[in-house]
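Aim 2 progress update. The chain analyzed this quarter is reproduced below.
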Amino acid sequence: MSKHDEVSVVKQQLAGKRVLITGTTGFLAKVLLETLIRQVPEIAEFVLLIRGNREYPSAQERFQGEVLSSSIFEPLRVQDPGNLYFLCNEKIRCITGEATEPNFGLSEQEFSDLASSVDIVVNSAASVNFREEMDQALSINALCLLNMTKLVKMAGNIPFIQVSTCYVNGYNEGHMYEEVVKPFGPTPIKRNVRGYYDVEPVISDLQSKIASVRKSHIGDEDSLSKKLVDLGIRESNRYGWNDTYTFTKWIGEQIAMREMQGGTLTILRPSIVESTLRSPVPGWIEGVKVGDAIILAYARRKVTFFPAKTDGIVDIIPVDMVANSIVLAMAESLASARQHRIYQACSGSRNPMLVGDFINWVTGEIKQNHKKYQKLCFHRPPKSFHPVNRSVFLSAMAGVRMAIETVGRVCKLFGAAGALRITDALNITHNLSVVFSFYTSPRYCFHSEKLVSLAERMSESDRDMFPVDAQMIDWQDYVCQIHVPGLNKYALRDRRKIHVPGMGAYALKCRRKSIAHDAVSDTQHTEHGLPAPQTSGHLVHARQTGKETVSQY
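Predicted structure tokens:
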């Protein structure tokens, strides 16, 4: 692909194309859709696959209620409401379907008609729950790729963009490049001569264990759910991953590479996706993400210490830069077909930010200006926040956990409010550490040289409209002047209106009016959560609707 100084390669390649996007009720795909609508009006049609739910039975209703109503579209509504109305009526087609069902739950004819009416597919649907039930994670993050690739092949091997995550690198250490990830676990997985790993035996083994757990817990849904979560974590660790989300996303990559042999496939891996850097407005975000759960817990005086490797690189990337990466990948895949590519949208190798600096900037900003963050802070935050060694912390907390439970029982019997608060804080810190400390004690550096090279092959106007290089970010300015204010403005609701469905039993008993509890209790991640603000994940099973979430995306 040659470089052009005046003509936009993106606009040329996407002009007249019909783009199918999944996961548009989620954080990242909303930004992608807004970016394409605003920057590439040449696109002929947006086809959105959306699963109906209890509140919005049809895709069209859900699009109106959960996507178009999002504040991400506010600049477009203000600048040109007539054009946005035209786009929604003439260029956006909503298909009610379930990505995990054969043919998306459509009839054979409907599925065939859908395949014949699209030119490129972007799959952003996922469950980003780090501790998802094994059957759900496998279905949503991996097996649904069979349905996606069936559509792509039926459509004539059109380009397919699969959104994954940099954390498919699992327990590997060191420099992580834009290539197929080799598992780093005690249980080996055979690599196919074509480059991908043969995951069919892994999937069969997982399905057998899922069936066994289900059989032994018939009629006991609560126990079944916990056992499936435990199974997911245990199997993920056995194969070389920290959590169920990253393990199943890796399996999904292998399925996509196998099924797209001879086709056009791009796997786009973001690192930790946070608020926008600049487009359409700086600091826009939905829901509470990986680092934000800890920020929120600190700001609300729930934790004063946390396991973290201060000299490690915390790899954060603004969501608009991830959306831009997808846009460039779309243009390239249309211009140069029949290839497989892997890109990583990340910052570690180009513009590293240390965990210690991130902590210092966040705590400093909140302590200095806590009065202007009324939704983030209920009181003056703690004077200090202490990062500690992860391995030492987790070992100590294993013993402390038993003490927590004992103190909790005593508090319940005697109503010791002070002790209850201490127990509550310890419980929150423990739960936060179990889920998130892997990401705050990084053992590798993600590279994005291939993505940056892709941008360089585009035109100058494309690089200006769709920047992807993290070198342009001033991290201190981003954290203090963009992200923390954005978190307070967009992600959190008025403290008096906070309601937290899906909280853990302990948090319910404590009756805390803080979404920090939901961020650290069961860490449920869904695509929709509450109407305002929407949460971040993507596609989840129907029975999980209505839960507040914390998400990597």
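Residues 495-553 have pLDDT under 50 and may be disordered. The first strand starts at residue 18 and ends at 22. These observations will guide the mutagenesis experiments scheduled for the next reporting period.
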